[in-house]
Amino acid sequence: MKLLFKVIETPDVSNLTLEDKAADDEIKKWSEFDPDLILLAIRCDVRYTQEEYQIYKRIKRVLREQFVCPRLAVAFTFGDRLNTNIEDELKSVNPELQDVLTEARQQYVVFSIEDQEENKEKHFSKILDFVPEKGKQKTCAENLLSESTPELPQEDCHHIHKDNTTHASKRQLSLFPDEPRHNINVLIIGKTGNGKSTVGNSLLNHSAFCVTRGFASSTTKPETQSAQRYGVNITVTDTPDLSNMSVDGNDVDRGIQSWQTFQPDVILLTIRCDVRYTPEEFQIYKEIKKSLRDDYLCPRLTVAFTFGERLDRDIRDELKDVCTELKQVLEDADDRYLVFREEDDEETKRKHIIHLMTFVPNLEIEGEVKKILLLGPPKSGKSSGGDAIVGRPVFQAGTETVRTVSYITYVHDTWCQISIRARIMDNGVDE
């Protein structure tokens, strides 16, 4: 069975720049996501504070204990900073944290900043085990949203931050994602003969682009084709080799910049993995990077190694001995790459599409949806925990998040949709 996991990250309650009543109303809206699991992020390298506990109690009171507790698990973060194992640490924690763990039925997972791939898989398996059966959960979102928020006792509000300024109380909050997307835009770049058209055909799963043999390129101007895959519309644009554009330098630069009009989510740089990467290819890449700018190209970049059927050994072994120029390209792509073979099977093609999906915000695909709600104060590491689940840094810890986004990934034969809530914080910066 294929499962789709959605992870929603929430703002810290103490930084909701609203009056108490308005903040409580916003907390109530979290129940509209009807999460299957609520992960409470807690740092395990510092003492659990009274303020954190009061925030947790407030959330539990607003959302109701019967809603929170059956879904609750703890995500201990910064596990790499522990001097002892977590079991020994938990023997001497304060009563407040003991209370949280009791209500979470001692369910917890430990995230480290530099978890190895096998650890990430163990984390995900453990998280799957935490998700209660649907029959044991009662959705009370409708009741929560229709009822008035109960008043909190003064002791529960003592550590909750208030901002009484007029502009803060009227601030617009983006609690839900932007309009969901059902499309992926892919731009393919590279040298003639590197298999750009073949890559495009593989992604679209049919012969959309003309593939020719010989020295002459069949692509003299950008060509766009689309196809439906997994309920998502994939649009692929095949671009010409710069050396075949037959224009002067300034026109080449303008031609490259015009590729941005295709609004690519992913830029695939095709490189043959059966021949040595040449200075000519690197020069083409540098020209493209100069025209598109690092901050535009690199976050979208993935290397598409072609002619993979001609490799004599594993691609990971091949990449240990590549030239400095190719190492630079891979560094720009944050070591993201795919290997394309002439006769890729359906499973391999599906993995290629899944990789593309991880770049597209607010993408919706077909499948059963499981949702995880992330709670935690600033610097609790909940963004890092979310990154560990999705498999790459999408939560952008330490940077300003201006809107709510979600990303797709695929782990253990399970579709995962990781959603990030917009920051609703005084300083606009996530942990």
UniProtKB/TrEMBL annotation:
Transmembrane segments: none annotated. The keyword Repressor does not apply. Belongs to the TRAFAC class TrmE-Era-EngA-EngB-Septin-like GTPase superfamily. AIG1/Toc34/Toc159-like paraseptin GTPase family. IAN subfamily. It comes from Pomacea canaliculata. Keywords: GTP-binding, Nucleotide-binding. One of its GO terms (molecular function) is GTP binding. Residues 181-382 form the AIG1-type G domain. This is AIG1-type G domain-containing protein. Coiled coil: none annotated.
